[in-house]
Amino acid sequence: MRIDISLLYGAAFCCASLAFCLKSVLASRLGMAVDAVAILGNATCGWSWLATRSLFRRESASRGDWWPIAAVLMVMIASAVTSLVPADGMPLRILDNLARLGSSAMLLMAVAAPLLDLREQSDKSERRFRILYSGIYAAILAVAVLAVDGAPDGSTASQLSIPVKVVCAIAAVFGYGLALGHRKRHPLVDPKARASRKPVASDPRLEAQLIMLMRDKGLYAEADLRVADLARLTGEPEYKVTQCITGALGYPNFNQMVNGYRIEEAKRRLVDPALAHLPILTIALDCGFGSIGPFNRAFKADTGMTPQEYRRQSR
């Protein structure tokens, strides 16, 4: 079973953030475990960078890319040593400074990670997602590090340092969860890999399988349907399924194909007198849309009218 690297790094980030919060709030009650919890919490910066990085790099591009993990582990080890051994000598003070510098650098790299190949992204929604993620991350970082740590001693900001940092840590974890959910619904596409991949010949069997799964089996009604699901059910690689969708079947992309089937089913239900009592939201959810907003936008893009207008017109 293939491990989802973004989920794995996200889990590590959540655990480190939890340890940071526990150490910040309950340090006096942790007893002998306080050092272990502090060491885990010190890894928050590194895991946040790896988690963010995994959201904006294709997994194939990250295979064999061992240096980021090595860098995080080195910072973790340095932090552990300086936490357990008093920094009363020059070597330990240097090590402590290097650990702090490494953690700060990883925070900045996490802000930059979504923007590194922004110009290569032709999808406007992907560009917005990257800019929004980086902007929110930078805002959390500015509040937690610059505004609080840089505050004068005795100031209100200084006195609220711990609760503010805890809230920022929770916000970062929550934000990553939302970003991870978005990435699962909108998988990352590498335009260079797509351009360099040799086109495959038309496969009538795969075409028939996809049509059967979508039209006859009603797979479009699954709200979290992905290309990987179709690849698993057909026994074909993801790239071949994608090429069949955009080639032989004639759809611009996977999402357009799925929404096309969903809209056709929604139109059928909206004009069915036996279903006139159903709210439009129910129809949208039954057809595979996660909420009413995307359904309304997709429906209007296809028909030129809202679902309400379409239903009224059919009466």
Account of the 3D structure:
- The structure is a single chain.
- The chain has 315 residues and is mainly α.
- It folds into two domains: 5-189, no CATH class; 197-314, Orthogonal Bundle (Arc Repressor Mutant, subunit A).
- Helix content is 71%, strand content 0%.
- It is built from 17 helices and no strands.
- The chain has helices spanning 5-26, 34-42, 44-55, 59-62, 67-84, 90-112, 124-149, 156-159, 161-185, 191-196, 204-216, 227-234, 238-246, 254-270, 280-286, 292-303, 307-314.
- Helix 2 runs antiparallel to helix 5 (67-84), helix 5 (67-84) packs across helix 6 and helix 12 crosses helix 13 (238-246).
- It is elongated.
- The protein starts with a helix and ends with a helix.
Order of helices and strands: HHHHHHHHHHHHHHHHH
* Oligomeric state of shown chains: single chain
Strand content: under 5%
> Which structural class fits the helix and strand makeup?
mainly alpha
Approximate helicity band: over 70%
Count, helices: 17
Question: Any low-confidence stretches, pLDDT <50, length ≥5?
Answer: 192-197
Average pLDDT confidence is 86
Q: How far do the termini sit from each other?
A: 51 Å
**Main sheet overview:** none
**Total DSSP E strands:** 0
Number of domains: 2
Estimate the global geometry from the Cα principal axes. elongated
Q: Over all CA atoms, what is the radius of gyration?
A: 25 Å
